[in-house]
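User: New here, any thoughts?
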Amino acid sequence: MLKNSKVTLGLPHSDPVTESVADLLTLAEPLDYKSSRMSIGLSPGAQPAMGKGLLPSPGDEEGRPAWNSKLQYILAQVGFSVGLGNVWRFPYLCQKNGGGAYLVPYFILLILIGIPLFFLELAVGQRIRRGSIGVWNYVYPQLGGIGVSSLMVCGFVGLYYNVIIGWSIFYFFQSFQYPLPWAECPIRVVNGSQAIIEPECEKSSATTYFWYRQTLNITSTIEDSGGLNWKMTLSLFAAWLIVCLAVIKGIQSSGKVTDRDIYTYSTYVFIDCVVRALNANGLTAVVYQTGMTKHLFLQL
C-alpha cells in the first residue's frame, strides 16, 4: 500500500471517515523492544510461573517504594549507620583490646572487607530492589538461605540493641530530676531516727549503685529471682513500640522524616561537634590525657 494512500472506514450511523496510513502510524504507541519479553507456551495475558527458571526482572515490582532524592537516600544511610555501635560500642572495644593496636587490624579489615561489602550491598540493593531474602533468590534460588541467615542476625542484633535503647529511655526520664538520682548515695534511716549512707553504695559508687540496684534491680543472690521490674518493662515496651511504628510505616517514612527534618538533623550534627570541641578543650587535664593515651596509643 502506498504511503499516502487513503483508507475509508465505514462507521455505522455516521459519514465515512478518510485517514492516511501515515496518520494511523503516527497515533500508534511506540514499542520498547529492549524491555519486551518473549513468553513461550503461554496464552495471551498469562504470566510466567515463579520459581521455574524464569526470574522476573527488577522492574517488575512497580509497587516497591523508592527514595525521592539522592539527598534523602544519603541522609537515611547516615542515620542507619551512625548508632550505638559507633558512639558507644567502638570506643569500649578499642580501649579494651589494646587501644591503638586495635585500630591497626580494624582499618585493614575496614578497607579490605568492610567498605567493599558495604558498596556491594548498596549496588545489589539498587539493582535488584528487593529485600535480603529476595536478593539471594534472584541471584540463585538455592542461595536463599543466606538471606534467611542475615534476617536472623538482624533479629538478634535488634533484641540486643533494643535492651540498650530501653535503658537509655529509662535514664532519659530519670535525668529530669534534680539532683540526679545517681549523683549521690541514698540515705538509709536506721532505728527510726539515725540516718546513714547506704553501706553498699559507699563501698562502690553512686552511679554503680544506681545502675545495679535502681535500674536493673538485681537481687543479692542468684537464688532470689525477685519481682517484675516494671520500670524497665515499660521502657523496653516503648523501645519496641517505636520499632513497630517504624516498620509499619515502611522505609519511605524514614526517608520522608529525614527529608523533612534536614535542618533538625544539621542542628544535631552542629551541637554534637560543639560538645566534642568542648570535651577536647578539657584534654589539658591529667585525667583526660590518661584516658586518651590508653584509648589511642599502643598498649603492648
Notes: Residues 218 and 224 are 9 Å apart (CA to CA). Residues 1-11, 38-42, 47-59 have pLDDT under 50 and may be disordered. The chain is about 60% helix and 5% strand.
